[in-house]
Amino acid sequence: MSGSSSQAIAQIQKLEQEIAFLLLYQSVLKNQAGEAFLQLLQSLSKKDVAGIECIQNYSHWFRTIASQNLSWPEYLITQILKDDNPFTQQVQQTNFTSISPSLIAAAKHDLRILQNLYQCSSQKISQWIQTIAKLGKPPIPWEVKLEKKEPIYKKLRDLENWADAIEELATHYRDFGTGLFAQSRGFQWRDGQLMNIINPDPIQLKELVGYEFQRDALIRNTEFLLAGYPALNVLLYGSRGSGKSSLVKALLNEYSQQHLRLVEVAKSDLRDLPLIVEKLRHIPQKFIIFVDDLSFEEDDNTFKALKAVLEGNLTTRPRNVVVYATSNRRHLIREFFNDRPAPKDRDEVHNWDTVQEKLSFSDRFGLTLTFEPANQNTYLIIVRHLAKQAELNLNPEDLDYQALQWATRNNGRSGRTARQFIDFLKADLEVDQT
């Protein structure tokens, strides 16, 4: 074995030792790309290096990094910035000066090790393979440069010792979160856990017209939440297709950069609502729990979990969580005429109390916004606004006439109908031009 080969193997073995001594940031490498990297190092550090094994491991690592469209150094920084460990958790909940010195020292220790991994560029690994495995032609290195918006990326790229960036990292974790909440802005509660929404609805507030009072009231309440003031739980009640759900989704796109997150919970999962709230309580971001199309049958007891969250219990209600629910019913629990007490009703002593509980459930939302059915004028205002955004060059009178015909033949006048009409009209005009 040549001197250069022995030197390269010694460097790799030292790197493996350092990785084994990671105290907090082990999960940075517990993913497909990280495990592929470790497997590659292991094959290169063997005494009897098999060239085919090395190239196979390199191919596997190359493919996993390429699928991320990041260079290995950039990938490492991305993993560090979203890592969920005792240090990143504590800096989100308290001042940096209150963190245990031992925990800070452990974080600095790991950052020095991770910086050594950061310096293992694809070019350097390619050279190791050529030197150690005696391959005549080195593998093609995977390199791509992406400019990140967050200042911390440039800070780490330019810093000689990453341990010196410990306070800047703490600020980043506090501002942007860690783990799941650093990866996405929209979530669904599914099978007892939070799941990322990969492609959230891109609807924007500027696209929504016709219900300005309701929009402005909901925006104001959301801004209270973001500013750390007590915000109200909100019921958006009204006719179908009036834009209630779109308005809530648009808030996420408007305020996600101000640390707003949205958790969508199906009505069938409402019994988990207290658990969800507790999971979010100590997270630094602000959360809207979104329940769409809310209503209950008379024998449905899942509303009790929602009632507990709306009214509170012995546990203090967190200031970083509100519930926004949409419904087509003003009174959320279905009521029948025979629910009302007859003059000689002997089935229940306090029957009126039961009726009042059903009727007053929606009152437990601090703010109720009513979306009345769109009249012809409101419907045409929405159509014209969407047509302008879609850059449809059409005679206004012709546009109004076609829009009214569409509403008559389809689902009536509503914001949803207007959106469907514009989408169809735009596609129809573009097909005619081809």
What would you note in describing this structure?
This protein is of the alpha/beta class and 434 residues long. The protein folds into three domains: 3-179, no CATH class; 186-371, 3-Layer(aba) Sandwich (Rossmann fold), CATH 3.40.50.300; 376-433. Helices cover 51% and strands 9% of the residues. It is globular, with a radius of gyration of 29 Å.
Content of β-strand? 5-15%
Main β-sheet: number of strands, strand sense, barrel status? 7 strands, mixed
Under the CATH scheme, the architecture of the largest domain is 3-Layer(aba) Sandwich
Please count the beta strands (DSSP E, at least 2 residues each). Answer: 7
Query: Which ranges are low-confidence, i.e. pLDDT below 50, for 5 or more consecutive residues?
Result: 335-340, 348-359
Biggest sheet strand line-up: 2-1-4-5-6-3-7
Helical content stands at: 40-55%
Mean pLDDT: 82
Overall form: globular
Order of helices and strands: HHHHHHHHHHEEHEHEHEHEHEHHH
Number of domains: 3
Let me know the CATH homologous superfamily of the largest domain. P-loop containing nucleotide triphosphate hydrolases
Radius of gyration: 29 Å
Alpha-carbon distance between the two ends:
67 Å
Question: What's the CATH first level of the largest domain?
Answer: Alpha Beta
SS-based structural class? alpha/beta
Assign the CATH topology of the largest domain.
Answer: Rossmann fold
SS summary, helix count? 18
